[in-house]
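Complex 337.
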Amino acid sequence: MTTQPRLFSGMQPSASSLHIGNYIGALVQWRDMQKTHDAIFCVVDLHALTVPQEPERLREQIRRTAAQYITAGIDPTESTLFVQSHVPAHAELAWVLNTITGFGEASRMTQFKDKASRQGADAASLGLFAYPTLMAADILLYGTNHVPVGDDQKQHVELTRDLANRFNSRFGDTLVVPEPVILKEGARIYDLQNPEVKMSKSAANQNGVVFLLDEPSRTAKKIKSAVTDTGREVRFDRGEKPGVSNLLTILSSFGGQSVAELETAYEGRGYGDLKKDVADAVVSVFEPIRSRALALLEDPTELDRILADSADRAGVIAETTLAAVYDRIGLLPRTRR
Ligand code: TRP
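Predicted structure with tryptophan bound:
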């Protein structure tokens, strides 16, 4: 019996490789939290459907996402790592939550407003509108205490709390009210070619984005051609020296030395030395993760088994919560006497 708090987080299978930003900004922190939590991680494939997807590509991305999380340190013997669509209760609880969510309330979600305005009101689907209630279902099915997410997801976790409280006060205590755990801002990684913007897979110039599954030589090349700043001093200053500051953040994250220690270590040395060291540090961490992920994907039998076992474990918990919810709201159980 575990007494650790329950953690739940999800990641969309929206790219064929994670990048340094996802790695430092989320994955490393999740990996560390496994030790203090009863952790459940979910590849949220149903969420990915809220924007158009190409079927064969989506299927591949779901596997690739799971493989990278495993080889980067999400241990499937210690944590549960499963695919959302393998546990039907997610879609089922989401439906119930839709019925207690206000139209206006959902309309105020800033991510929906952003995405809908980018797609045009007619292109945005009902699924996109209901994205936050599906996310609430993910969290609430598992009696989750802590939800580690980026700042941009905080509003969705707040909505989840509101829905849990609303359900409990209408139908009696059923759902655990979760807390958001906001991932470290200091771990934010910027685009190597455009260090004013956050690193993103959708950047127009892919040379600024270092992917976990890039070949090591490609990774080194991208880092060595990172945009730096005029001057030659290696110093952390986001305003004046965004490029150098970003490299220092990356090196600090990969090598374990603080930015201040690095500043001292690079006194009197130039950007060339810094870039070489960043490239070496990133390659030495990513290379083994990459080769193990590619090996898992080469023959996905083992990966599929891990995901199926995890979905079995998750399904038992989720079904219990869903049954309690259905009972509270007055649905008839399917029984034969
Ligand atoms: N919406 C989250 C994101 O884009 C992904 C997600 C889906 C999630 N369900 C979740 C995160 C449940 C935490 C908990 O990052």
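Residues 301-329 form the longest helix (29 residues).
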